[in-house]
C-alpha cells in the first residue's frame, strides 16, 4: 500500500491548516473567496465512491463541520461544496463561501479572476479563526 501524498498542484495553490479525523484541511491561497479544501488522507483515491462506506460518511461529517465553521466565520450568502477533480485527479472537496457581491457570483469561481494570495498575516489570522471555531477537531499536521 502506498502512503498518502498531497497532489503537487494542491500543495502549490493552498496553505495547510491541519488534520481532521480523515482529511487534511487546506486553505486555498486566494483571499477573494473564503475557500477550504478537504483531502482524505488515503492514497490513490479519485472519486467519492472510492472511499469505503464508513469513510464516505466520515467525510460528509467533516464537510458539514467545515461548512458550518466557514458559514459562522464568513457569514456568506451561500456555501458551495464540490468534488470535481477535472484538473487534480486526487479526491478533494472544495468548500467555498460565496457572496452575491463576489466577482464570480452566480457562476463558478474557477477562472473568473486571478487569485489574490493571502498576506502572511492574513493567512495566519484566517488559520487562527478557523482553529478557534473547529476546536479539538482540527489537529496540527
UniProtKB/TrEMBL annotation:
Does the keyword GTP-binding feature in the UniProt annotation? no
Q: Per the database record, which ranges form the HIT domain?
A: 36-105
* The keyword Hydrolase is annotated on this UniProt entry: yes
Q: Name one GO molecular function term.
A: hydrolase activity
Query: Which Pfam family, just one, is annotated for this protein?
Result: HIT
What InterPro entries does UniProt report for this protein, alphabetically?
Answer: HIT-like, HIT-like_sf, HIT_Hint
Q: Which domain of life is it from?
A: Bacteria
In its UniProt entry, what is this protein called?
Diadenosine tetraphosphate (Ap4A) HIT family hydrolase
